Amino acid sequence: METDLSFDDTSEILKGLLEEIRAKSAMTMGYPVSKDFDFSELLPFINYPLNNVGDPFIPSTYTVGSREQEKEVIGFFAELFRAEEDNWWGYVTNGGSEGNLYGLYLARELYPKAIVYYSEATHYSVQKNLHLLNMPNITIRSQESGEIDYDDLEKTISINRQVPVILLANIGTTMTEARDDVGKMKAIFKRLAIQHHYIHVDGALAGSYAAFIEPRPAFDFADGADSIAISGHKFFGTLIPCGMVIAKKNHRDRIARSIDYIGTMDTTISGSRNGHTPLFLWYVIKKLGIEGLRARTKKCLDVAAYAEKVLREVEPAVWRNPSALTVNIPKPGKALIAKWQLASGADWAHIICMPGMDKAQIDAFVKYLKESKIRTVALVD
């Protein structure tokens, strides 16, 4: 189909799109997206084809990229996640789903005959990745909070204890932001004398700030993780969706191979990789630092506590997990879900108090929720 658009038509379309996005962005409450960072200093870089093709730690013959910044980002998170010195590696991915795919891929190469265990609250990308990798798997029950049921996990593993175990631990489940305890998982291995095991941590949301929570959740390499994936466009707010995966370097070495065409090693899922997103992550880390990220976490938790309090006055069943940014509410009507862009399941919806959300926005949502309930009661009467 041919389209005949003049430059003026294009300008009008873009103007209208910008206005629409601006309005809708102000109403977003149900999805983990940060909207508070100013990246105007990085705007000149959009004029260049930044491509961090291949392994970030090995130079490529294509040099228009941000490899040095990417390596700094990976090093920052390796230290934050308490990785063993000189035994860590990683790269900036297209998102959390790719990070999960990479962790499971490494695990499969280590233990080709293993069974993967994950809770029913696990993100949908995991089932998709398991299908792509053709890995046998078993779903484990979740507790009401969304955290994995450790008794069911132990009983199920014990039935197949002769088979290597791959565990998918959630650090912030999709709907309730529940966190699985990697330390408890390791204890199960010890009780059952499981010698061959691998733990991949899906920390898409909460993994970004879990290190700044007190008490610190058991989720990182010191607790027993073999690989960790997080998202970059959520808590850090990189504008362009991205993520990151950190893994033990000795695991990564199992899959590495040299590629002459790009002059570097093929160790990642994608070939060409975005060179702009590592720059965004690097910029946030440099601007905020450890203490800035800690303060960012505290501010979000304060807003979440406020949201839980005022929403409970309208809906007594409102709840949230300890130190979570996600506040769960009984599923409201379709109009409210659409207006505020709430993520919802069969019976529940949630709001996520991300950076950029303030108490004024919470108050506006609560006001609308109250009015919605009044209208519903009036219609019933």
What would the keywords be for this entry?
alpha/beta, seven-stranded mixed β-sheet, 381 residues, globular
Q: Secondary-structure map with pairings?
A:
Elements: H1 7-27, H2 67-80, E1 89-93, H3 96-110, E2 115-119, H4 124-133, E3 137-140, H5 150-159, E4 165-170, H6 182-192, E5 197-202, E6 227-231, E7 243-247, H7 249-252, E8 257-259, E9 264-266, H8 277-312, E10 326-330, H9 334-340, E11 343-344, E12 348-352, H10 359-380
Parallel strand pairs: 2-3, 2-4, 4-5, 5-6
Antiparallel strand pairs: 1-7, 6-7, 8-9, 10-12, 11-12
Helix pairs in contact: 2-8, 3-4, 5-6, 8-10
Fold and architecture overview:
This protein has ten helices and twelve strands. The protein has 381 residues and is α/β, with parallel strands linked by helices. Strand 8 (257-259) and strand 9 (264-266) form a beta hairpin. The N and C termini lie far apart (53 Å).
Helix percentage range:
25-40%
Low-confidence stretches: 258-263
Mean pLDDT, to the nearest integer, reads 92
The class by helix and strand makeup works out as: alpha/beta
Beta-strand fraction estimate: 5-15%
Number-wise, the strands total 12
- Ends distance: 53 Å
* Tally of separate helices: 10
Biggest sheet strand order reads: 1-7-6-5-4-2-3
**So what's the overall shape?**
globular
**Rg (CA only):** 22 Å
Sheet with the most strands, sense and barrel status: 7 strands, mixed
N-to-C SSE series? HHEHEHEHEHEEEHEEHEHEEH
